[in-house]
Amino acid sequence: MNPQAIAQNVIFGLFVGGNYGVAAAGLSLVFGVLRVLNVAHGELLMLGGYVSFWLFTLAGVDPFVSVLLSAPVLFAVGLGLHRGLFVYVERLEEETRIKNSLLVSFGLGLVLQNLAQWAWTADERSVNTAYAGGSAIAFGLVFPYTRLASLALGCLAIVLLDQVLRRTFLGKAIRATAEDWRAAALAGIDIRRTYLLTFGIGAALAGIAGSLVSIGSTVAPTLGAAWTLKALVVIVLAGMGSIFGAFLAGLLLGAAEAISTLFFGSTYREVVGLVLFLLVLLIRPQGLFGRGSR
Amino acid sequence: MLTVTGLAADYGDVRAVWDVSLEVAAGEIVALIGPNGAGKTTLMHCLAGLHRPSAGSIDFDGAALHTLAPHHIVERGLVLVPEGRHIFASMRVLENLEIGAFSARARRERHATLRWVYEIFPILKERRDQVAGTLSGGQQQMLAIGRALMGLPRILLLDEPSLGLAPLVVRDIFAVLRSINARGLTVVLVEQNARQALQLANRAYILEQGRVVGQGSGAALLADVSVQRAYLGLVTA
Fold it and tell me: N or C end of chain B, less CB within 10 A?
């Protein structure tokens, strides 16, 4: 096996992994703050993909521009879903809340999937821009421009999110609520509003990831479950409480899958993530970048 | 200033607070003493909006508090320092304090309030960039009180501020409470450390099994034989 081929695989793995990272960051944020495990996160990502597909096909909007639209559109969808659905789960005690959120969001995922099938048919769709074929070549390795730009956008989204969480009053409210919601409420933070906005931000990240997926790959109504699974694997790899950790773990999973394809063929690609998932749970249950148990 | 009338609170089928009425006047220090499980913390949680009372009312300067969410209660100037401190351990000291000034009213004044809090607790200024979880227990209690003061309370509630702290640290914290009270802040204090609480307080209520079973001035209760026997560990001949 030549090192060139390995390096090329790793690079493509990282490009895919960037999307894993963005998807996982949203799911991790929502779970960390609301203690709601939204397994329909992948379906929100799917909707983000269709936003880009639609804008491109109907209005000729460049997918890198439509990212700027799919984020606010999915933010609004997130607010609506929280108001209409998850707010009822939120009133439960923490343990029941996690269990019920799984059931509720599983149902939501099915509904969204079927709505998408009704609206856009079951065909696999993709966004093919005129410049899609172009690549940069460095050290004998191929770097497609669209993939490079996707990864850069993903990084940018994560850095922005991190800055919002660190510097703004809203970000501090979100972090405080994640750490101790009672203490946050006693400090004067409106917990309901924080939950609402956090859910919206999580959905917006799914939207961004979905648009990025539509650029490099195809979108179909059944896409969601696979992405939720990837995001869950990434969260376990990363551990809770670190947005950058989730992004890095996403890159890591992408690279690991790509390398494994070289050795075991693509049949076992999905297995790699799950094996990593089990190994991390056995050896380092707090995750690679986690802060340990609380 | 604060009037609680006929308050009852339940956890599921278990009633923790029965028909409690009490009154706090502006400028007072009022202590609530009583054994474990007397309902003191539940009462505090009702006042701060963390627990909905099943019956009764809470009136704060003419406004009903018992139907408001916690952040609206903070906005009106009633701030609770919870039992066990509940600082944000992974965040820096300064961030903890900033979050204390989250309500719109307090946020406008936060720079001035921060200087005041640093004056009261110079150690917090020294440690402002330190991660709060690495502070000692006493410093964490100071941070919890400092964070509450950042909310510009008109009435400050403290639930067991002496819990798990060394006697010298407790003395410092009680001295701080005395001095901020002297500057006009009304204080309500829940304590198992009855002696120090009664020494500090103008008036006190005794809670047992969810009911008010006694009240009086701090000094009178300190001198009361049954209180001495039950709460002060004194055996009289």
Answer: C
Q: Are A201 and A160 in contact (CB under 8 A)?
A: no
pLDDT in tens, A72-93: 999 999 999 999 999 999 888 8
What are the φ/ψ torsions at residue B147 (nearest 5 degrees)?
Answer: -65, -40
Structure token digits, residue A218? 């195809």
- Alpha carbon of B149: minimum distance to chain A alpha carbons (Å): 10
What is the Cα–Cα distance from B16 to A257, expressed in whole angstroms? 56
Number of C-beta neighbours around residue A96 at 10 A? 11
B95 and A172 within 8 Å at the Cβ level: the answer is: yes
Beta strand extents in B109-227 (DSSP E only): 155-159, 186-191, 203-208, 211-217
Under a CB-based contact definition with an 8 Å cutoff, are residues B189 and B200 in contact? Answer: yes
| Contact call for A191 and B70, based on CB within 8 A | yes
Question: In CATH, which superfamily holds the domain spanning B2-77+154-231?
Answer: P-loop containing nucleotide triphosphate hydrolases (3.40.50.300)
A-chain residues within 8 Å CB-CB of B100? 187-188
Contacts 24+ apart (CB under 8 A), A128-133: A129/A56, A129/A62, A129/A63, A129/A215
Q: Which residue has the higher pLDDT, A216 or B195?
A: B195
- Of B86, B90, B151, nearest to A183 by CB-CB distance is B86
Q: Does residue B29 sit in helix, strand or coil?
A: strand
Looking at chain B, the domain(s) classified CATH 3.40.50.300 span: 2-77+154-231
Cβ-defined contact of A185 to B69 (cutoff 8 Å) = yes
**3-state DSSP of B74-93:** HHHCEEEECCCCCCCCCCEH
- Assign A291 to helix, strand or coil: coil
Q: Using one digit for the tens of pLDDT, what is the confidence trace for A208-235? A: 999 999 987 888 999 999 999 999 999 9
Q: Which CATH architecture has domain A3-121+132-283?
A: Orthogonal Bundle (1.10)
Tell whether B70 lies on the interface with A, counting CB pairs under 8 A. yes
SS3 B146: helix
Q: What does the angle CA B108 – CA B114 – CA B116 come to, to the nearest 5 degrees? A: 115
Specify the amino acid at residue A112: L
pLDDT of residue A126: 82
Closest CA to B194 of B5, B13, B34: B34
- Minimal CA separation from A175 to chain B, in Å: 9
Q: Please report the pLDDT score of residue A293 as a whole number.
A: 45
Q: Which of B80, B89, B95 sits opposite A186 (nearest CB)?
A: B80
Q: Which residues pair with B53 in a beta bridge?
A: none
